[in-house]
Amino acid sequence: MLRRLWAVMQKEFVQTLRDRRTLIIQLLLPLIQLFLYGYAISMNVDHIPLAVADQSLDVASRAMVDAMTTSGYFDVVRHVPDQQGVADAIDAAQVRAGMVIPPGFAASVERGDAQALFLVDGSDLFTAQSAYNAASAIAQAHATSVMLSRVERAGMGTLVGGTPLDARVRILYNPNLDDLWFIIPGMLAMLLQVQSMILTAMAVVREREVGTLEQLLVTPIRPAELMIGKVTPNIFIAFTNLLTVLGLGILWFGVPFRGDLQLFLWLSFMYVISGLGLGLLISTISSSQRQAQQLITLFAMVGLVLGGFIFPRYTMPPAVRVVGNLFPLTYFITITRGIITKGVGMAYFWEDVAALFIHILVIMFFAARSFRQTLA
């Protein structure tokens, strides 16, 4: 078995290295996309999921929360006890921003020295920019409203003293709101999916078109061994692209890598396997390279839009989010941003890892079954 498998792998490596033009394109394309996406994307969002730690529970604190929600920029989706609860909710990607109101808030407002803390998830740049700008503007408007109310109650024509509310906004993980700190992790996920699908699907369909796939069938090689042998070189190419883009992101663009590199590489390997399975499945239902390319483009476009690379998934209708759950890109984007930007571990995205693992089992089962039926 090992000799047959090694023979197929040798054939695939030789064929891959012989077509140097295609190999160069496969290696350069991610770099071109990196620079294009790295300098050309900018967006804002609203209805940002917000966690609230209201430790005062008085009229003033409720008015502060109402000012956030009525603006349309924030939706309160979680109530937590303290600042750590807000940080944990952000780490787990349950919310994108949080507000901490300390005890005795109403009394502090009356004295003119009240403070409220806003925490914003900087790993999601589009959300962070909108949350930062909206929180600052809303807090300032609310502070002015409270100040005028004090003036009116005191019967003064002008206000004596400073602003009664000091709202402080802190951006977590990406304090300077650098675009590339948000784009690079998501782009790694996108490139790995597209590259792994293209490499496998086009290789299988090309052999079917030229007739060499039928020649392999008369050899002692088994379908499972043929499938493993064909995808092995593609794993090396996909990982070369992964390390190239990651290295440029860190060394050239200055994107920090805060998490566990070993964990990231292992999960990337799982993700590449899922992409190769999708490519193998596409190859079994494609009669030509053009048809395979069209299907890959369709899969990549839908996964790109629904996976959360550019557009936040929480703004999408539930039915659309369900469709997005069918793509491994959806889960790996959360994993890459969690490891690279936030530096968190499995405890915060284990559900995405479990979903990715289930996806691998399902897609490889159907891909292997379709591949065997195609060869029969």
Report how far the terminal alpha carbons are from each other: 20 Å
**Structural class based on helices, strands and sheet pairing:** alpha/beta
Query: Largest sheet, order of strands side by side?
Result: 2-1-3-4-5
The topology string of helices and strands comes to HHEHEHEHEHEHHHHHHHH
Tally of structural domains = 2
The residue-averaged pLDDT reads 80
Description of the structure:
The chain has 376 residues and is an alpha/beta fold. The chain folds into 2 domains: 2-40 and 179-375, no CATH class; 48-172, abc type-2 transporter like domain (abc type-2 transporter like fold, 3-Layer(aba) Sandwich). The protein has helices at residues 2-18, 20-40, 59-70, 83-91, 105-111, 125-154, 179-210, 212-217, 223-251, 261-284, 289-306, 318-324, 328-342, 346-375, and strands at 48-54, 74-79, 97-101, 114-121, 165-172. Helix 6 (125-154) links the parallel strand 4 (114-121) and strand 5 (165-172). The longest helix has 32 residues, at 179-210. The relative contact order is 0.12.
Task: Give a quick precis of the structure.
The protein has 376 residues and is an alpha/beta fold. The chain has helices at residues 2-18, 20-40, 59-70, 83-91, 105-111, 125-154, 179-210, 212-217, 223-251, 261-284, 289-306, 318-324, 328-342, 346-375; strands at 48-54, 74-79, 97-101, 114-121, 165-172.
